[in-house]
């Protein structure tokens, strides 16, 4: 069994290395013709139509805009849900609410995309005049709803792991329930909560179908959520549909963007790992 488990561990590492190799080998042809500096600092992304331009910043800004909007929704709502489940909810309510959160996490992302474009966007258009049908705001709001289960479930697990003795000591000193939750339990579980936040944001950065359907396909260097944008994953879907000839520079942009997305999510996960190790509390 030891060798079987070791093989499973090595297989997961080998898969990651294989993905990285496939991306890097294909992206190498792109970077031989387009400089890395031009790719990372250019402000215009137009790889297919003439005149071509290969500045990836519009895709990065669109990706981060949707991820930040999703985080603004998911972090407070998810943390509040976790505090309620861990500190306030009776056992019967917890047994009902937890499965519903897990069902929310299991809904296909394409469903979220059509929910954003057919319900959320028309609703927003009643408040924001001139809002286009494809926009970053509706995609970001629905993205937040989609990643709430990640934040709430992982944060609740971190809070439940806090020893009961810390709560009892705070109550003995005269603290109220809300003071115990916010000043004792949340700080004690901070490393797990922050790791949940980072994991949820990484999930938002790598989301594909929701932003492809709801955010649009216009590479636009903007931080205005009411405008149409295109994310990195949305562009990958566009090229994968055959809009560029196989082996061309335009086609190799798929792997260059994918490689950059890989390093962005890797950096997020490494930051989460560092935070967990740096501020982890052991009881």
Write a concise keyword list for the protein shown above.
single chain; mainly alpha; 283 residues; 76% helix; 1% strand
Radius of gyration: 22 Å
Global shape: globular
Poorly predicted tracts of residues: none
Q: Mean pLDDT, nearest integer?
A: 88
CATH architecture assignment: Orthogonal Bundle
Counting structural domains, the number is: 1
Helix and strand content put the structural class at mainly alpha
CATH top level class name: Mainly Alpha
Distance between the termini: 31 Å
Count of DSSP helices?
A: 12
By DSSP, the count of extended strands is 2
Oligomer: single chain
CATH H level, superfamily name = MetI-like
Major β-sheet strand ordering: 1-2
Order of helices and strands: HHEEHHHHHHHHHH
Helix content: over 70%
How can the largest sheet be summarized? 2 strands, antiparallel
Query: What name does the CATH topology carry?
Result: MetI-like fold
Note the beta-strand portion.
under 5%
What can you tell me about this protein's structure?
- A hairpin with a 6-residue loop joins strand 1 (45-46) and strand 2 (53-54).
- This protein has a two-stranded antiparallel sheet with strand order 1-2.
- It has 283 residues and is mainly α.
- The protein has a single domain, classed as MetI-like fold (Orthogonal Bundle).
- The protein has helices at residues 2-33, 36-41, 57-88, 91-106, 109-125, 136-160, 164-172, 177-188, 190-205, 209-214, 232-243, 249-279; strands at 45-46, 53-54.
- The model has no long low-confidence stretch (mean pLDDT 88).
- Helices cover 76% and strands 1% of the residues.
């Amino acid at each position: 069994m030891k060798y079987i488990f070791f093989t499973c561990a090595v297989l997961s590492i080998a898969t990651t290395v294989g993905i990285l190799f496939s991306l890097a080998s294909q992206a190498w042809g792109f970077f031989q013709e387009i400089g890395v500096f031009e790719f990372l600092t250019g402000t215009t992304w137009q790889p297919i139509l003439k005149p071509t331009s290969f500045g990836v910043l519009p895709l990065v800004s669109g990706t981060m805009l949707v991820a930040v909007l999703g985080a603004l929704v998911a972090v407070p709502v998810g943390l509040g849900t976790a505090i309620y489940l861990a500190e306030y909810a009776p056992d019967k309510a917890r047994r009902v609410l937890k499965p519903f959160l897990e069902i929310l996490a299991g809904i296909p992302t394409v469903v979220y995309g059509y929910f954003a474009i057919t319900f959320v966007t028309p609703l927003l258009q009643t408040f924001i005049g001139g809002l286009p049908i494809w926009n970053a705001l509706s995609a970001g709001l629905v993205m937040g709803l989609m990643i709430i289960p990640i934040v709430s479930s992982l944060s609740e697990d971190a809070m439940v792991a806090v020893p009961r003795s810390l709560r009892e000591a705070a109550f003995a000193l005269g603290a109220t329930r809300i003071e115990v939750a916010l000043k004792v339990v949340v700080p004690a579980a901070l490393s797990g909560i922050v790791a949940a936040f980072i994991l949820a944001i990484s999930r938002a950065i790598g989301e594909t179908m929701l932003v492809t359907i709801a955010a649009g396909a216009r590479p636009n260097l903007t931080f205005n959520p009411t405008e149409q944008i295109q994310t990195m994953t949305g562009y990958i879907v566009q090229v994968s549909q055959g809009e560029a000839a196989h082996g061309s520079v335009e086609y190799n942009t798929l792997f260059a963007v994918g490689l950059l997305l890989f390093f962005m999510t890797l950096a997020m996960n490494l930051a989460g790992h560092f935070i967990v190790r740096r501020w982890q509390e052991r009881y």
